[in-house]
Write a structure and sequence with these properties.
Elements lengths: L1 H10 L21 H11 L1 H21 L4 E6 L4 E4 L5 E6 L2 E6 L6 E11 L8 E11 L1 H4 L5 H62 L7 H35 L26 H22 L3 E13 L2 E14 L2 E10 L5 E10 L4 H69 L5 H35 L8
């Protein structure tokens, strides 16, 4: 940066018709701003935490979306050992069961059990085996194969996690842009202090050459003090510049001799944003959808239907008796209704019908209290969604106003920078022709540096503001 400014000052009238700098009197680094932002994201613990949260949510969702086709269950049943009057074991009985359940949407459950009785000791005889088989098929899952609330919650959790990750990355960008802005401003401050030192040294040299002040005079002492003060100010500014550069390096892991140019494009196309694009609105909408689905499942669901088939074989009076039954059941609220038709083979067998009715009403007070809690929760979700939508609309209005103000400010600062650069060109030409003093050129250069610092500061602030907009609004697709 110093070399750039020194070259511009040294060129004098040879550079009189050329602007001292296209944007600012400084050298831009070789690493672009985006590379600094990406490096900071990769080192951010907040971003890494959100990435892990996304992986957890995605793994959970994949497990729910791709369940095992069948689930097995083995149950020993109640094993009983009976003892005779003499205390000797006489009978061993058990009902081991093996069950198989199909995944949604079928939900079919099939089970096979074998009741076993075996005599022990003097009562030992041929073991009695009584196998039975049953199949139960929920019908409502087939008639209305709606996705489960658990699956919907997992998808919403993944969408929230991805949105939070994008917001964390945007906040990381804003923090890094502010660090880069501090580095740039420290660079301009150091350059301004270097220019001030150069001016003080020139004034002292001219005074000694022209004999303006006698040796030991107060005037000469004042100029010498000015040089020492400017030197100290430059040293302090150089230390601040080093600290600012180190802060950027610590946050990103990158290093460069000079800071980059500010990002040219806005991070978010604010003109195309609508309140629905706000992250808070999207999250509130997902929460409301889950509340509505949960309320409907609890209070607006119809009857639960199922069909079942069972068959068993029993040894009765030394002969096998086979029984088969086909039935159906319906559950609605606290009422359960079931019935079926069956057949029993062997002596005394035949066709039979069975019917059962169960009603276990919940106390009205408890039921009303639960429903009231669920209704309040649902209404709260609706209010939260409406509030988020209103807040997003206000934020967008403020954003548009801020952008208009920033555009006016940017135009004014750019005009000031151009004017300051032209002043340097003109005064250098006049100084080369003997019509302007060196002090006038020095002052113009200081104003040029100040104008450039103000223009770049505004540009970095705009970039940081854009990043914060990205933290509040959805700019990438998330899983829904």
């Amino acid at each position: 940066m110093g070399a750039c400014l020194a070259l511009a000052l040294a060129c004098g009238s040879a550079r009189a018709q050329t602007l001292p700098g296209a944007t600012a009197p400084r050298i831009y680094g070789s690493i672009e701003a985006k590379a600094w932002l990406d490096a900071a994201r990769n080192r951010s613990r907040a971003v890494e935490s959100r990435r892990l949260a996304v992986e957890v949510a995605r793994t959970t969702l994949e497990a729910l979306e791709n369940p095992a086709l069948f689930a097995f269950k083995a149950d020993s049943g109640s094993v009983r050992l009976s003892f005779g009057e003499d205390g000797v074991p006489s009978l061993l009985s058990a009902v081991p069961t093996l069950a198989l359940e199909a995944a949604d949407p079928w939900g079919t459950t099939a089970s096979l059990s074998v009741a076993t009785e075996a005599g022990l000791g003097s009562a030992a005889a041929e073991p009695v085996l009584e196998p039975s088989f049953s199949v139960k098929q929920p019908l409502d899952r087939l008639l209305d194969p709606a996705e489960s609330l658990e699956l919907l919650k997992a998808r919403a959790a993944l969408a929230d996690a991805e949105s939070e990750l994008a917001a964390a990355e945007a906040r990381s960008d804003a923090e890094t842009l502010n660090l880069l802005m501090a580095w740039v401003q420290a660079s301009f401050d150091a350059e301004s202090k270097r220019a001030a030192l150069s001016q003080a040294e020139r004034e002292l040299s001219e005074a000694k050459t022209l004999g303006t002040y006698s040796p030991g005079s107060a005037g000469l002492a004042r100029l010498e003090l000015g040089v020492r003060s400017a030197s100290i100010a430059l040293e302090r500014s150089s230390r601040s510049l080093a600290r600012a550069a180190y802060a950027v390096e610590a946050a990103t892991g990158l290093s460069d001799a000079h800071p980059p140019a500010p990002p040219a494009a806005a991070a978010v196309p604010v003109d195309s944003l609508i309140p629905d694009a706000a992250r808070a609105v999207a999250k509130a909408r997902r929460s409301l959808a889950l509340e509505e689905r949960g309320f409907a499942d609890e209070w607006e669901a119809g009857a639960s239907l199922s069909a079942d088939f069972s068959a068993s074989n029993q040894a009765v009076a030394g002969a096998d008796r086979t029984t088969a039954r086909l039935g159906a059941a319906a559950e609605w609220d606290s009422l359960t209704l079931s019935g079926g038709v069956g057949w029993t083979g062997g002596a005394g067998g035949g066709t039979f019908l069975d019917f059962s009715l169960s009603w276990r009403p919940e106390p009205n007070a408890a039921r009303d209290a639960r429903r009231m809690v669920d209704e309040l929760s649902l209404e709260s979700a609706r209010v939260a969604f409406a509030s988020a939508l209103e807040a997003a609309a206000l934020d967008l209005a403020d954003l548009h106003a801020d952008i208009a103000d920033r555009e006016l400010e940017a135009g004014q600062l750019d005009a000031s920078l151009e004017m300051a650069a032209l002043e340097v060109i003109q005064l250098r030409a006049e100084a080369a022709a003997g019509f302007a003093a060196g002090s006038e050129v020095d002052e113009a250069v200081k104003l040029w540096i100040q104008a450039a610092a103000a223009a770049e500061k505004a540009a970095w602030q705009r970039a940081a503001a854009d990043a914060l907009v990205a933290a509040d609004f959805t700019t990438t697709e998330v899983s829904e």
